[in-house]
Design a protein that fits this description.
Elements: H1 47-58, E1 62-67, E2 72-75, H2 77-83, H3 95-98, H4 109-118, E3 122-134, E4 137-151, E5 157-166, H5 168-185, H6 190-204, E6 209-215, E7 220-226, H7 233-237, E8 243-245, H8 252-259, E9 263-265, H9 278-282, E10 285-292, E11 297-304, H10 312-348, E12 360-367, E13 378-384, E14 390-397, H11 402-421, H12 425-442, E15 450-458, E16 463-469, E17 475-478, E18 486-489, E19 507-510, E20 516-520, H13 532-544, H14 551-559, E21 570-577, E22 583-589, H15 595-609, H16 614-635, E23 639-645, E24 649-656, H17 676-684, E25 687-693, E26 696-704
Antiparallel strand pairs: 1-2, 1-5, 3-4, 4-5, 6-7, 6-11, 7-8, 9-10, 10-11, 12-21, 13-14, 14-15, 15-16, 16-19, 17-18, 17-20, 20-21, 22-23, 23-24, 24-26, 25-26
Length: 707
């Protein structure tokens, strides 16, 4: 396909083993110095030999004659190019000498010798030969070769004629389909499929421009890749930039997707009527391939800026490429549907908003285990009691299915109802015991396994009262002024899981201003082939050495404290007893291009009114503007910016209602313009992260105040 190195005419072969100049004789001329070669003077040749040599030297395809017992090699210009640096010294030399390093290898010298010895023709299919010698090494090339014996007038075999057709490029492209299939097997979302398909098309087909589009039920959305785009780690981690198109768009991709018919344009301006920029206008050759499956309508386009004849073999290759992408896209569509349903079920059973109290700041994080495609049983909750105290709870229902999620919802609802009537932790857990026992009897099952830790925080007395039903003990991070923070596990009797009617006891500890409580599920600390005590130690160390006690920061620290992946759900809930009340403000961000500018003006005015140091205002406004821009680009929905200022830090978050997923940490030294916002945030903030919410994602960053 376009972009590969084309073959031009090789340098004419001179009789003395060097390239001939314009004045040198041609091997087809009668005065060529054949007498200096093993073939001898041309006038003495057998007529058959003369005819074969003339055929070889004048042929437009790669041909060679191995003559005589030494198999002296006579070849044409096409073969000369394949020989690379071996030419012109190889002309009229024994083949075994030319290919000394590989002649004895199977399927190289033995085949030619056998044909010469037996006179029987032989056809080789897809043979790999180290021919082109460049930079001191032989490059592998793939050929289909035919060998036949050459006989003189007496019927004796005097040589072997070889005709070779190189299929290296086509073979490499077929191999790339296998690589594409492997890469697509690891995709789970349409974003993943688009990234893999576009990257493969640009690299394997040497395309100047590739596009991928699907109908998502709300119209067409397309993503494009242009050769020369600089993509780095941040770009690959961010979702692709999808662009919306109307359902009646005349764009070739959408027309092919609607009609289900592939279209090949060899030369013209196929994107002229729907061009969005100069890249579209430059496309002259375009292949448009529909993607049609049971649940997906889409298409792919592959374009070149020069005319290109779409040969039958290449059309078949492109059809196979499109079929692989279509299958992967359908799997991704099903996954996203199932994943969205499971996640909506899971998160609808969790509190959408945590209480806002003057001295108690809270944050939570939940991440599904296994493959993220099933609802799990981990849950958390925090709510204000009638007497003004705060109730906090985190539990774990065994299982990763709808049944586990349903049981989790029942336990959480029952716990809140019991706590609002009588908040004492021991009494609440005894009530849950009766509930789980009743549910088990109703289901004729003794396999309902539920653990929970429940506590009541009294900010008036600075006390925390806890009770546990088989759940890991919470962590308490102490942050006294002038001292280094320390994180210790609360000494609370673990008890037995719910439903076993165990003895329920409580523990009361001080919960002072500056302290932060962390409740967590076992998915935070458990790893396969790793001791549980190591995970608990790593978690306490991570919290003690965190830059601050802000709940959102500690949630992010906790979920990444233990290396390795977990198959279990992960849930954390952090509550900080602040020394002083914080100040908060929020702003709704419309889904329009002027939104980042509005965010900058609003934040500058608000932080100036709060007397935040001017250098910090500039950095915070810049980071918030980048987050708002990313939310508009990648989520495509309205967003909400929230700022929270305490005596220790400034916390800024941007929440959207899209489905862009989690933005992972990027390296700041290799960021392009699209990913530069993440690099700025990492450089300018003290901590940052992303949190999935019930209806979207929240990206946040924290800056510590000077002093």
């Amino acid at each position: 396909m376009p972009g590969t190195v084309g073959r031009g005419p090789a340098t004419p072969i001179g009789p003395s083993g060097s390239s001939s100049s314009p004045g040198d004789p041609n091997p087809l001329d009668d005065d060529y110095r054949w007498s200096e070669t093993p073939l001898g003077p041309r006038k003495l040749w057998d007529p058959t030999l003369r005819a074969v040599v003339d055929l070889v030297l004048s042929s437009p395809v790669a041909m060679a004659l191995a003559y005589g017992d030494d198999l002296t090699l006579i070849y044409n210009d096409c073969c000369a190019e394949l020989l690379g640096s071996r030419h012109p010294a190889a002309f009229a030399q024994p083949a075994a000498q030319i290919f000394a390093e590989t002649w004895r290898a199977r399927a190289v010298g033995d085949i030619i010798q056998r044909v010469y010895r037996t006179g029987e023709p032989f056809l080789e299919r897809e043979t790999s030969l180290p021919l082109r010698a460049t930079a001191g090494r032989a490059d592998q090339a793939i050929f289909v070769r035919g060998h036949c014996a050459v006989r003189d007038d007496a019927g004796r075999v005097i040589g072997v004629l070889t005709v070779a057709a190189e299929t290296t490029q086509m073979t490499q492209q077929l191999q790339s389909l296998s690589e594409l299939s492997t890469a697509l097997a690891g995709t789970v979302t349409l974003d993943d499929v688009a990234r893999v398909a576009l990257r493969h098309a640009v690299n394997s087909f040497n395309a100047d421009q590739v596009a991928f589009g699907v109908d998502d039920g709300m119209g067409w959305r397309l993503v494009r890749r242009v050769r020369g785009d600089v993509l780095d780690e941040a770009d690959e981690r961010l979702p692709p930039l999808w662009r919306r198109h109307p359902t009646d768009s005349p764009a070739p991709l959408i027309v092919a997707a609607r009609d289900g018919v592939p279209v090949y344009t060899s030369d013209g301006q196929p994107l002229r009527d729907t061009a969005t920029d100069r890249h579209d206008e430059k496309v002259r050759a375009l292949a448009t391939l529909p993607l049609r499956t049971a649940s997906l309508h889409g298409a792919l386009t592959l374009g070149y800026q020069t005319p290109y004849p779409w040969l039958p073999a290449e059309r078949a290759l492109l059809s196979a490429w499109a079929e692989l992408v279509a299958q992967a896209a359908e799997r991704a569509r099903r996954f996203e549907t199932q994943h969205g349903t499971a996640q909506l079920l899971q998160r609808s059973m969790l509190p959408e908003n945590l209480p806002e109290l003057p001295r108690l700041r809270m944050a939570a994080r939940y991440a599904p285990g296994v493959d993220g495609n099933a609802a799990g049983g981990d849950f958390y909750d925090a709510f204000t009691l009638p007497d003004g105290r705060l109730a906090v709870v985190l539990g774990d229902v065994a299982g990763h299915d709808v049944r586990a999620a349903a049981l989790m919802g029942q336990v959480r609802a029952a716990l809140r109802a019991l706590a609002l009537g009588e908040p004492d932790p021991a009494i609440v857990l005894r009530g849950l015991d009766r509930l789980v026992t009743s549910l088990g009897a109703e289901a004729h099952s003794d396999e309902l396994f539920v653990t929970v830790v429940y506590g009541v925080i009294d900010p008036a007395t600075n006390e925390l009262t806890l009770a546990s039903a088989g759940h890991p003990a919470p962590l308490l991070r102490r942050g006294k002024p002038g001292e280094r923070p320390a994180a210790t596990y609360v000494s609370v009797p673990p008890g037995v899981p719910l439903g076993l009617d165990g003895r329920r006891t409580t523990s009361t500890v001080d919960f002072l201003p500056g302290d932060t409580l962390l409740l967590f599920s076992d998915g935070v600390v458990e790893r396969r082939h790793r001791d549980l005590s190591d995970g608990l130690r790593r978690l306490s160390t991570a919290l003690a050495t965190a830059t601050g006690g802000d709940p959102r920061t500690l949630c992010a620290v906790a979920t990444s404290a233990v290396p390795g992946t977990t198959e279990d759900d992960v849930a954390v809930l952090a509550v900080e007893h602040a020394r002083t009340p914080s100040r908060s403000a929020s702003m709704a961000v419309p889904a329009e291009p002027t939104a980042p500018g509005r965010v900058r003006r609003w934040m500058t005015a608000q932080l100036t009114a709060w007397q935040v140091p001017e250098p910090m205002i500039g950095a915070a406004v810049l980071c918030a503007s980048e987050l708002a821009t990313n939310a508009l680009l990648h989520a495509g929905t309205a967003a909400r910016v929230e700022i929270d200022l305490s005596s220790e830090r400034l916390l800024v978050s941007v929440a959207d209602s899209g489905t862009r997923g989690t933005v992972t940490r990027a390296r700041t030294d290799t960021l392009s313009s699209r990913g530069r916002g993440l690099g700025l945030i990492e450089q300018l903030s003290d901590a940052w992260g992303t949190d999935p919410t019930v209806r979207g994602s929240t990206v946040w960053f924290e800056m510590l105040l000077p002093g």
